[in-house]
Amino acid sequence: MFDLGDGWKLMGDEEFRKNIGVLQDEVRGFLESKDLRIDYVVPILRSGAVPATYLANQLGIVKMAPIQLKLVKGENEPRVLLNSLSHLLIEKKNPVFLVVDGLNGRGKTAKKAVEIIRHDFPEAVIIFAVLAFRKSAGVPVYFFQQKSAYEIPEDEQLMFTWEVLEQQINHPDDLLENIYY
Questions:
Q1: What is the pLDDT of residues 15-40, one digit of tens each?
Q2: Strand 2-5 and strand 8-11: pairing?
């Protein structure tokens, strides 16, 4: 981790590759131990887009169904900006979804993503994978504890190399006029 000051840490490319590689091995091992095959990778946008794409490619999964959620400052529940799952053509009674997020800071977006999936697929198997988490966030679904998951201290903020610090501090998505098309 690189210290950016003011409580901000950066997970560099090398550390990302190491952590995502371990996470990939753990997901693969978990799937084999439970005799499961993932039907869709579900990135929680935006933080989960890069890790989900990497995992999907490494695990040979073609189908992705992103969910975009935004927790606006001052609001308690995340807003749903994109929910493509309701249109999926799945005939299985219990499809397997790998929900991927970069960070699980408070657990609210992860819980909302699970709620969206459960609405349309009540008997789905949902696996949650994340690169970094806060213990206080909790985990809303079946979760295997990744050795690679970085535990974020309560007084620390984490960002990845594909993010911009200025936008993390003064995030344009915090302005409501910037989150709807």
A1: 888 888 888 888 898 899 989 999 99
A2: antiparallel
Provide the token pair at 16.
């990302």
What is the residue range of 28's domain? Answer: 2-178
Q: Are 108 and 78 in contact (CB under 8 A)?
A: yes
The CATH number of the domain where 106 resides is what?
A: 3.40.50.2020
pTM above 0.85, yes or no: no
Would you say 126 and 117 are in contact if contact means Cβ atoms under 8 Å apart? yes
Say what angle helices 13-34 and 49-59 make with each other, to 10 degrees: 50
Instruction: Note the pLDDT tens digit of each residue in 105-144.
Output: 667 777 888 888 888 899 998 888 888 766 665 554 445 4
The number of folded domains in the chain is 1
Tokens of 99: 């929900």
Angstrom distance (rounded) from CA 77 to CA 90? 28
Of the candidates 12, 18, 79, 21, the residue with the CA atom closest to the CA atom of residue 45: 79
**Measuring CA to CA, how many Å separate 1 from each of 17, 26, 43, 112, 161?**
13, 22, 23, 29, 11
